[in-house]
Amino acid sequence: MTVEGLTVRFGDHVAVDDVSFTVPHGGVLGLVGESGSGKSTVAKAVVGLVAPDRGRITGAARRQLVFQDPYASLNPRMTVGTALTEAAKVGGAERRGRPAEVRRLLGLVSLDAEVAGRYPRELSGGQRQRVAIARALAVHPDVLIADEITSALDVSVQGAVLNLVRELRAALGLSMLFISHNLAVVRYVSDTVAVMRAGRIVEHGPVDAVLGDPSEDYTRELLAAVPRL
Predict the structure, then answer these.
(1) b/e map of 34-56 (b: 16 or more CB within 10 Å)?
(2) Start and end of every ABC transporter domain (predicted)?
(3) CATH number of residue 12's parent domain
(4) Is the pTM of this model over 0.85?
């Protein structure tokens, strides 16, 4: 997926200003920056939830977004099985094959099949985020956009979800835009990183180069502000 010259305005405020980057096939690009830097607006523009004022997004027909708060993104009146069945339908699964597809999706995110009968309120935060990831995978996305998917979770659960992301990438060859304010988290899952500040990308390159020897003071400040995993 390639993003070229993406600009998003809300009235007089420029939330995203001429942003360009590429998520290579099978690769993970980490998009990092402090709150309000424009990261989530980029994510919403990529999946069509926000209309850009300028720019192009090409190279990936199916883009799926996993939100920060899994509880808010799941229908509280639907069981996990129903939610995944609806997603599997969109993903092209035939009616008689959908129960097996639900079991497959739960297995991908290391959840037991019996979770299909539960409601979101009956799950832990980490389990809900796994369900949200499974639902996104049901439509066979070309690119998965993960927007702060660990920031609402306990530290111990964050590690398990990050390990899951790495496992899914290895198993499925996932291409991913991984958004976080935490550079240590981005270092753990990403190949390349783009650093956003006030709507613009100020530094971009291989994750070890950018985080090992950043050229921007802002990147160094972000590194100093968060603990390493």
Answers:
(1) eeebbbbbbbbbbbeebebeebe
(2) 1-223
(3) 3.40.50.300
(4) yes
pLDDT at position 228: 52
Q: How far apart are CA 129 and CA 70, in angstroms?
A: 5
160 with 224, same domain: the answer is: yes
Number of structural domains found in the chain? 2
Q: Which domain holds residue 82?
A: 75-140
Contact 7, 52 (CB under 8 A): yes
Dump pLDDT digits (tens) for 3-42: 999 999 999 999 999 999 999 999 999 999 998 999 999 9
Residue 143: beta bridge partners?
63
In a domain, 193, yes or no: yes
Whole-angstrom distance, CA of residue 179 vs CA of residue 183: 10
Mean pLDDT, the chain, whole residue set: 92
Single out the residue in 93, 116, 140 at which a domain terminates. 140
Name the token pair of 209.
């180069």
| Length of the chain (residues) | 229
Residue at 149 is within a domain: yes
